[in-house]
Amino acid sequence: MLIKKDILSLEFYKKSAFTGSLGNMRYRIVKDVTGEGDDAITKLKVAIWPGPFAYDKTDASQMTYELFDFSDEGLEQITTWLNDNASNY
Question: Measured on CA atoms in the order 16, 27, 79, 32, is the torsion positive or negative?
Answer without folding.
Answer: positive
